[in-house]
Amino acid sequence: MLKPLVLLAVLACLLVGPSEQLRAQEPASLLEFRLADDNDTAGWQEMEVRGSDKPVFVSNEVALNGGDIEKVSFYKDRNGDPSIGLTLSEDGAEAMITTTSQNRGKKLAILLGGKVVSAPVIQSAISKEVQITGRFDQDDLLTFFHAIVLRKLPANGK
Predict the structure, then answer these.
(1) pTM for this predicted structure
(2) Where does residue 124 rank: exposed (0-12), middle (13-18), buried (19+ CB within 10 A)?
(3) Which of 33, 44, 73, 140 has the maximum number of C-beta atoms within 10 A of its C-beta?
(4) Which of 94, 93, 77 is nearest to 85 (CA)?
(5) Does residue 36 contact residue 107 with C-beta atoms inside 8 Å?
(6) Distances from the Cα of 32 to the Cα of 15, 17, 127, angstroms
(7) Widest CA span in the chain
(8) What whole-number distance in Å separates Cα of residue 3 and Cα of residue 97?
(9) Alpha-carbon gap, residue 2 to 98, rounded angstroms
(10) C-alpha to C-alpha distance for 125 and 96, rounded to whole angstroms
């Protein structure tokens, strides 16, 4: 009998079919959190933030990725927009606390599939529970699903 997670993943793939881009990448690397700045920072990459006409400069160093997440929840925020709740692993929580406590007032870029979907300002230290709100479309939600849930599947399908 297939494990419930494997069965869920197979069902999801059959229903929505991952894009070629998702198949070509390691799922845990599709979701990344990196420090960012509005000003040109030496060695950081200039990137567009979806929905904004201003670029952001993103660190090459990944603070967290999909592998640091234990659980994801999808729901609507008080405005009816998609919202994503994340529960971090112990290692992920430690990395998030360190990153956010040392960088208050700076930006933390959220990248999905190598593209910045949001770059909020860090207001306070964040630990194990994270809530992300923003302009997420169906593809973003599917990418979150792949990056977090499907990453737990063995690479060879066994």
Answers:
(1) 0.71
(2) exposed
(3) 33
(4) 77
(5) yes
(6) 26, 22, 16
(7) 54
(8) 33
(9) 39
(10) 8
Tokens found for residue 111 = 């990248």
At position 93, the amino acid (one-letter code) is A
Q: What is the mean pLDDT of each run of 10 residues along the chain (158 residues)?
A: 39 39 47 94 92 92 89 84 87 95 94 87 90 74 70 46
AA letter at 13: C
Rounded to an integer, what distance in angstroms lies between the CA atom of residue 86 and that of residue 64?
A: 12
Kindly report the length of the chain: 158
- Contact indicator for 151, 67 with CB cutoff of 8 Å: yes
Nearest to 48 by CA among 139, 114, 144: 114
Q: For the chain, what is the HEC assignment?
A: CCCHHHHHHHHHHHHHCCCHHHHHCCHHHHEEEEEEECCCCCCCEEEEECCCCCEEEECCCCCEEHHHEEEEEEEECCCCCEEEEEEECHHHHHHHHHHHHCCCCCEEEEEECCEEEECCECCCCCCCEEEEECCCCHHHHHHHHHHHCHHHCCCCCC
Both tokens of 106, joined, read 């700076």
